[in-house]
Amino acid sequence: MEQTFTSGEKWRQFFVIFTPVVVSQLMLFSMALIDTMMSGHYSNEALAGTAIGNSLWGPFNASLSGLLMAVTPIISQLIGRGEGHDIKRTVSNGLYITIGLAALLITLNFLFVPSILRMMGLDPAVASIARHFLNGICFGVPAFFFYSVLRAFIDSLGLTRVTMMITLITVPVNIFLNYLLIFGNWGFPELGGVGSGYATGITYWIVLLVTIILIQSQKRLRDYHIFSGFQRFSLEKMKEIIKLGVPNGLTILFEVSIFSAVTVFMGRFGTDTIAAHQSAISVPTLLYAFPLSIAAALTILVGFETGAKRLLDAKKYRHIGMVSAIAIGVVNGVLLLLFRDQIALLFTNDPKLADLITHFLIYAVLFQFADALLSPVLGALRGYKDVTVTSIVAFISYWIIGLPLGLLLSYTTLGPFGFWIGLSAGLFIAAFILSIRVRFTEKRLA
């Protein structure tokens, strides 16, 4: 990254950072989509079980990764201030935190997931698939969290193209392993939907290994000596990461978990509706990679400019992010409307299920517009290291307003589609409140 002076230079630097990030996010997000699609071609039960498993894994995956994302603005501001010597300490302590997080998540999975699945009142076959799918995911959890910190380190340096190169391997590897483990090809056990969980877990380890090799082989990364010598625990650095990461993680948890809560409430509409809901929601989840990547790029660039005390430049980058997100949101929304029938057929050969998926996708357009307004604001606030209020706003918007509204609408003629309207309302409300907050923050720092 470097200082920019004209609008053209800023747009160019923004897209240099953003483009590889969005490719990386699409690769990572598509793993859940691929699991769902390939399981759906095995059986409806495998589709529902995999979808339920992903809906339970998603909130923890996103929120704990969000906590580790605190490494990004910390390093970006260190670079802006010319304090690159402190980067190794930040990364090392981030890696130490992942050990505790991985152990906690694996323990929670084995202690509480069976009870949660029983409470959902699922078909026993679907519940069994979901449970063992999550066991497979847990196999790769330590690798995924380690990778998350190392990716934050690489991205913070503006080397997002490197992480793009790494994540480009995820989709072909995941598809190949799904081919082996779901359908039992080439002499491998036929595990059905459970196989997709183990395929994902193995893929995480492969991605981590490739990341470590690249860090050690590229001079720009090797010069920070991330893996050379033991770095002491730093209570001060851990506090900095946790202080920034916990509110960020909670914000993501409140947003992502609301979708899992809706899946639980969908149980009363039957297995087909659950399968259609989860299949359909995986599409806007994949498209969410675009606004999320804009947010990530803004966190890097706003953090860099804030560290260098160029606050006007930081604000200009936020405006670039907002314009880009709205433009992409409109395009994605139109594409969803035009190709919803074709998209539905990617998940199932069952005409009834495909019709349900098609109807859900109509309401998914609302998510595109809401995320386009919300994500850039969140990214800028992270860059400014102002995240305390965001978790409070997220909880109120999603859980106090969005979910009750969706539940109420689900008892009208809208049925299960009412939940999607409630969720969209929560996202729009959060976007409005946090847009006010980011302007307040910029005035305070100026």
UniProtKB/TrEMBL annotation:
What residue ranges carry the coiled-coil annotation? none
> Which keywords does the record carry?
Antiport, Cell membrane, Ion transport, Membrane, Transmembrane, Transmembrane helix, Transport
What is the topology of this protein in the membrane according to its UniProt annotation? Multi-pass membrane protein
Q: Subcellular localization, per the record?
A: Cell membrane
Q: Which CDD domains match?
A: MATE_NorM_like
GO MF assignments: antiporter activity; xenobiotic transmembrane transporter activity
InterPro entries recorded: MATE_fam (IPR002528), MATE_MdtK (IPR050222), MdtK-like (IPR048279)
Keyword 4Fe-4S recorded: no
**Where would you find the membrane-spanning parts of this chain?**
14-34, 54-75, 95-117, 129-150, 162-183, 195-215, 241-266, 286-308, 320-340, 360-381, 388-411, 417-436
Q: What does this protein do?
A: Multidrug efflux pump.
Record family assignment: Belongs to the multi antimicrobial extrusion (MATE) (TC 2.A.66.1) family.
The entry's protein name is Probable multidrug resistance protein NorM
Q: Which organism is it from?
A: Listeria booriae
Upper taxonomic classification of the species?
Bacteria, Bacillati, Bacillota, Bacilli, Bacillales
